Amino acid sequence: MVHIIYLCRLLHPFSPKGKLLHLGLEGLSATNKLVNASKAHNPDCVLRDQLYRIALTENSVGQLKEASAAYPKLASWLSSTEMEKACGTPGMGGLLLRNGCKVIHMPSYLDGLWKACLESNRVTWSRENVTPGEWKDRLTSFDTVVYAAGSGLFHDGILGDESASCLPIELVRGQSIEVELDSTMASRYPNEAILSGKYMTPLPNSNHVLIGATHEYKAKPLDRSAVVDELQIRSFELSPFVWENSEIVKITSGYRVQSKRGKDGRMPIIGRLSCPEVQKNIWLITGLSSRGLIYHGIFGSLLSDCISQNNEDSISHLLWWK
C-alpha cells in the first residue's frame, strides 16, 4: 500500500492561466463547509486565509488581470510593489486570492474531518489485516463498496488489472522539498503561500517552507540532486530569498492519479464500476490529481447522492470516462 498525505494543499478555484475551473465555485463552497467542520476540532488546520499567484511574464499579467476583473470577490490584482510587501516576491504583480481560498495543513484537516464524522455517530471505523486473496471475499458482506484509495487502487491491484486498464488515467510521481529558513533571516520573510507553476507554502513550523512539486512520469524516480535542481530552476523566481537563505530538511514523495484531459480539463472519475472480481454494488472516486482539495467535497457529495438513489442519472454529464 502506498500511504501518501501531502503536507499542505492550496485551495482555490483557478487554473494556472487564471481561468475558473469547471465546478470551481461549487467546489470551493463544498470544501469550505468541510474545512469549517474540521476547524471545530483542529483550528490550526488552516494555515493561511489567502494565497498569492505571481505573474512572471507579460502573458501571465494579462491572464491574471482578466481573472481579477471577472471574479473581484475572489481575486484582487496587486502591483509588483504591493505583491512584494505582501509576500516577499514582486514578480510583475499578481493576484491575492481570498474569500474562501486557503492554505490547508492536510494531516490536521483530515484528522479534524474524521473527528467531525465520528461526532455525528453515523460512521464506524474498522481496519482489518487481510491477505491479497481474502479482501474480495470480505467485501461481499457489504451492500455497497466505494473505492477511494487514490494511487493505492493501482499500485496494490485493488481494482484488478482488467478494470484498472480501462480507466483513462496515469500515475504521476511528485516530489517536494521541505526547507528551513535561516533563523536570523526568517523574520524578514512573510512566509505566505505563493505559486506560479510551482509553489511555495508555509508549514506549521513558522520557519519551514514546502517547495513543489515535480511531475515525474517514469518508473524510476528522480534522485535527490535532480529533484533539487529541477525545483530550483522552476521556482527560483518565485522567491530567491527562500532558496538563498534556507537548508533542505527533507524530500517528500507521492503520486497523483491524473485523468485524461477533456473539454472541461482534467476531471475526477466518479460513478458505478463494473468489477468482475466482486459482484456487488461497486462505486469509484479517483483521478482528483492535484485538484483533490477543490474537488473532493463537491464530487463526494455528487457520488453520495448517486449511491443513495442507486443510479447515475444525476451525474450522466460526468461519466465521460466510460
Summarize the entry for a quick read.
This protein is of the alpha+beta class and 322 residues long. 31% of the residues lie in helices and 25% in strands.
Largest sheet: 8 strands, mixed
Structural class: alpha+beta
The CATH architecture of the largest domain would be 2-Layer Sandwich
Spatial ordering of strands, largest sheet: 4-5-3-9-10-11-8-12
CATH superfamily of the largest domain: D-Amino Acid Oxidase, subunit A, domain 2
* Regions with little confidence, pLDDT below 50 for 5+ residues: 1-5
List the helices and strands and how they pair.
Blueprint: E1 8-11, H1 24-39, E2 46-48, E3 51-54, H2 58-70, E4 75-78, H3 80-87, E5 94-97, E6 102-105, H4 106-119, H5 135-139, E7 144-147, H6 152-155, H7 161-165, E8 169-181, E9 194-196, E10 198-202, E11 208-212, H8 224-235, H9 240-244, E12 246-259, E13 261-262, E14 265-266, E15 269-272, E16 281-286, H10 292-309
Parallel strand pairs: 3-9, 7-16
Antiparallel strand pairs: 1-6, 2-6, 3-5, 4-5, 8-11, 8-12, 9-10, 10-11, 13-14, 15-16
Helix pairs in contact: 1-4, 1-10
Tell me what the structure shows.
There is one protein chain. The protein is an alpha+beta fold. It folds into 2 domains: 46-108 and 170-259, D-Amino Acid Oxidase, subunit A, domain 2 (D-Amino Acid Oxidase, Chain A, domain 2), CATH 3.30.9.10; 128-168 and 260-318, no CATH class. 31% of the residues lie in helices and 25% in strands. It contains 10 helices and 16 strands. It has helices at 24-39, 58-70, 80-87, 106-119, 135-139, 152-155, 161-165, 224-235, 240-244, 292-309; strands spanning 8-11, 46-48, 51-54, 75-78, 94-97, 102-105, 144-147, 169-181, 194-196, 198-202, 208-212, 246-259, 261-262, 265-266, 269-272, 281-286. The strands form 4 sheets. An 8-stranded mixed beta sheet has the order 4-5-3-9-10-11-8-12, sandwiched between helices. The chain has a 3-stranded antiparallel beta sheet with strand order 1-6-2. β9 (194-196) and β10 (198-202) form a beta hairpin. α1 (24-39) crosses α4 (106-119) and α1 (24-39) crosses α10 (292-309). The longest helix is centred in the C-terminal third of the chain and has 18 residues, at 292-309. It is globular. Residues 1-5 have low confidence and may be disordered.
